[in-house]
Structures are given as C-alpha cells and as structure tokens.
Amino acid sequence: MTDWQLLAPDEDSLALADTARAQFRSLRGPAVMRAALDGGVAGGWETVAEGGYVDIGIPEELGGIGRMIDLVVMLEEAGRALLTAPLLASALAFRTQVAAGVHREEFRRAPAGFGIAEGVVDEGGRCRVERVHVLGGHGAAAFTLVVQGPEQVWVVVVDPEGEGVEAVEQDTLVDPSRPLPAFRLGHKTGVAAAEWRELAFGDLERVLAGARVCVAADLVGTAAGALDGAVEHVLQRRQFGRAIGAFQGVKHQLADAYTAVERARSLVYGAALSLDPRDCLLANAVAAETAVRVTSLFTQLMGAMGVTFEADCHLFLRRAHQTACLLGEPDALYLAAARIERRISR
C-alpha cells in the first residue's frame, strides 16, 4: 500500500531545494549559456562537487546520501536555473551504474558522460559502437554507455582517453552549453571497459528508470523556470493601460501551463518513489512535452522581445528542446509504457 505522504518532499527535501536554488543561481546559467552560443565553455563542476550534489540519491553503502526524492528536487532546481555544469550527465551516469551494479565511489570524483547506442560488447568487455552521442562528453573523466545489441544490453564504463575512442563530426546543437559530442568506439578491435555488465534485453527499462526520473526532473525545472519568467513578464508588460496578465486570454494560457507543470511534477515524484519502469517512462514523456510547451508559451508571451538574443526565453526553449528527446521521443516513451502495461495486464 502506497504511503501518499512520501509523494511530497518533506522539510529536509524542501530545505535542500532552497539551498540548491540559491547556489545554482549564483552560477549564472543564462549568462553562461549565452557565452556558450558564442563559443564559450561551460564550467561549474567544482562548485557542484564541493556542494556534495553528486552524492545525492546514491545508496549509503556506496558512499551516497539522501533519497531519490532529494535527487529529484535538486535536479529540478538545476533545470530552473539553467545550470550548465555537467550535473545531469553525471546523475544519469551514476544512477545507471548503480542500477547495473557497476558503480564505484571513485567514479563520482570527476564529471561523467552518458549515452545510449547500438553496438556490441564481447566476452572480454571490449566495446564496439559505430556512433554514440555522449551527454557531457567534453571534459568527462569516464563515459557510461548503455549499449543495445540484438538480444541483450550492456552497461559499460569506458575511459574517453582510452585507445579506440574517436571523436566524430556532429551537427550544430541548439544548446551548446549542454554538449552532446559524438564518438566512435573501437571501430576494429573494441575499447576496453573499466566496468561492464551484460543484462537481458528485458532489463533495459529497469536499468534506465533512475536516469529517466533525472531527465524528467530537469525538464520540470526548465518548465517551471520558464513559467516563472512568463508570469513575471506579463505582470510588468503593459498594453491598453494595464498589465497584459490582466487579460483573460493570457490568464487562461498561464493557468494551463501551471496545471501542466504540476501534473508533470507529480508524475516525477511518483516515479521517484516507485522506480517502476512504466511510471518512469510516463514521467519522462510528460515532462518532455510540458517543458517544450511551457517554454514555447514563454517565448510567445514575450512578443517581439521573444525573438531577441537578450531575452531569456530562447535559452529555456533551447534547453527544453535539446533535453526533451535525450532518452527518446515522447511518442516512443508512451508506446513503451503501453507495452509494459499490456504485458502486466495479460
């Protein structure tokens, strides 16, 4: 029987959220994103690591602290602040390592990259992947990859500086502050993995459950930050002698956006509690759709200012679009959840 009180953050989690919000805002995410669009390099890992944020949500026996709900509220604040430090990539890597049973405490001493690709891992743990986009790949000390074969799945941890890891050409990103560089691994002989685990193909969603919750939490934060910005704007912008937020058409759109954000947040909290693959797929899909929808509304309500480089709305829009399909498009996630439900109901 579900303890419904666990679906809401307690006082400790809310205090963590307040602390994270203040610290992440101090890293000036929007300014760093603008600099990245002009070729700058995003930083901030030292602040995140020193704050202990990378240990949140990791089991205590592995040197971690806190619960999954603590990780969720922290990542939501990271999304709200448009954090450019590789916290999300590292959270995805570490949660996947824990789920696969290959995590080491020393992995958390440096930023990690995360990716999903088709490929093969031989019996000696040598990995071959033709092309994989690695979130946080620039500057990562290790890549955690979910490699999908025809009938099985592997979770591998590889050294990006290892023999056989080759950077390949990639398309321009809409959000360069959250890099997704592409790599080829072991085109001929394979790349030796520091850790690896072979799993049945049916275990894929179980292993990705925690990662999906992390992505969903970040997307909810992005949507919430865009909603905050939209509300602030419509209360200040005046037309026909009053704030545009007083017009019914604007009110209704913001009310719908608020409802969408709260719905997505509730699904993420529920998924964090259960870590059921079906719940995590739905939370990921709904959060992705919500982030794109609310950031688009922010841009629309900004009017002509919404298409200027100086306005923040395009930064939220860029972040939402680049992150929304990180672990699959929403339609594919809904379909995967439906297939799980169908198997359960039989």
Automatic annotation (TrEMBL):
GO molecular function per UniProt: acyl-CoA dehydrogenase activity; flavin adenine dinucleotide binding
The species this protein was found in: Nonomuraea wenchangensis
Keyword Nucleus (UniProt): no
Residue ranges of domain Acyl-CoA dehydrogenase/oxidase C-terminal in the record: 207-328
Family affiliation: Belongs to the acyl-CoA dehydrogenase family.
Keyword Manganese: no
SUPFAM superfamilies xref list: Acyl-CoA dehydrogenase C-terminal domain-like, Acyl-CoA dehydrogenase NM domain-like
Name of protein: Acyl-CoA dehydrogenase
Domain Acyl-CoA dehydrogenase/oxidase N-terminal: 11-87
Keywords: FAD, Flavoprotein, Oxidoreductase
Cofactors that this protein relies on: FAD
Pfam family, one: Acyl-CoA_dh_1
Domain of life from the UniProt record: Bacteria
